[in-house]
């Protein structure tokens, strides 16, 4: 039975992914929960030209956001019929921005999955909460407080100017170029062989960002963007 259910979930995910791929031009998103996370996300999506439907049970939050959104509604999306009435089942993307009410977060995510919304994002307030959402089948789970805490910790304790970590233990780091990477073409510096990282971009003072190649010569004071295993980019940044 477990194998059968697993196969059903895989088939459903594949079908939804195909539907999403066919509708990538659809720039509509429903943001459910207009607290700090949801409102910030909705505003940024609007700034980028998306059509945003903002939904919350708190009329004050909806009223505050209504002028800046394409559409807004005061509604309880734990009721699947409400989602249908709002037309959320026709959207290709939806975000569950509710964190503190875990029961509501899980119910809404389940309703969106039942409605077969192809691309569902959900905020989690703990790893356990995130694991529950993942087991339900939510496509993207984010832990904004946890991830931001890790990011700031890297910036405070290291010599990084910015840090982004990916799920598969890879990271992207912006840092001042250490002496070991300067003065010769990157292909000759052998930073990839020595440190297990790849320099993907360079920002020279007073100049625009450019992509790096094997012929690029990094100079002292340049800011570089490197990628690789998290421990490797951490160690490389400490050379600065």
UniProtKB/TrEMBL annotation:
SUPFAM superfamilies linked: NAD(P)-binding Rossmann-fold domains, TrkA C-terminal domain-like
Give the RCK C-terminal domain ranges: 158-240
Give the Gene Ontology MF terms in alphabetical order: monoatomic cation transmembrane transporter activity
**InterPro entries attached to this UniProt entry:** NAD(P)-bd_dom_sf, RCK_C, RCK_C_sf, RCK_N, Trk_Ktr_HKT_K-transport
The residues covered by the RCK N-terminal domain are 26-148
Example GO BP: potassium ion transport
Instruction: Tell me the protein's name.
Output: Potassium transporter
Query: What is the species listed in this Swiss-Prot or TrEMBL entry?
Result: Streptomyces cahuitamycinicus
